[in-house]
Write a structure and sequence with these properties.
Elements: H1 2-19, E1 28-33, E2 43-48, H2 51-64, E3 72-77, E4 80-82, E5 87-89, E6 92-94
Antiparallel strand pairs: 1-2, 1-3, 3-6, 4-5
């Protein structure tokens, strides 16, 4: 009986770790492209909680840099830097 309870508690604990992650954890990274024809060169502008915040901050930064017409931006969802490829890998890119 005691082993069954321990096994059940352990199984619930392990499964909650595998499937219990917060699916609402989203962070959006603002990437500014000074030259919209060159997508390899970008500047990370910050991390935001919503896509709307990211878009607004990106447009403001383009205006501050005087790149409203020449530059571009994208917002990446849950980006992580890949050391081997030397770039950010994101789950999704949006504008």
């Amino acid at each position: 009986m005691g082993k069954t309870i321990i096994f059940t508690v352990l199984a619930v604990f392990l499964l909650s770790g595998c499937f219990g992650g917060d699916a609402n954890d989203k962070e959006w990274t603002s990437l500014i492209y000074p030259d919209k024809t060159n997508s390899k060169r970008n500047k990370k502008n910050g991390i935001y909680n919503t896509l709307e915040e990211c878009k607004k901050a990106s447009l403001e930064e383009l205006a501050n840099l005087g790149l409203k017409d020449k530059g571009d931006y994208k917002c990446g969802l849950n980006c992580n830097y890949h050391e081997g490829m030397k770039l950010d890998i994101c789950e999704q890119m949006s504008k």
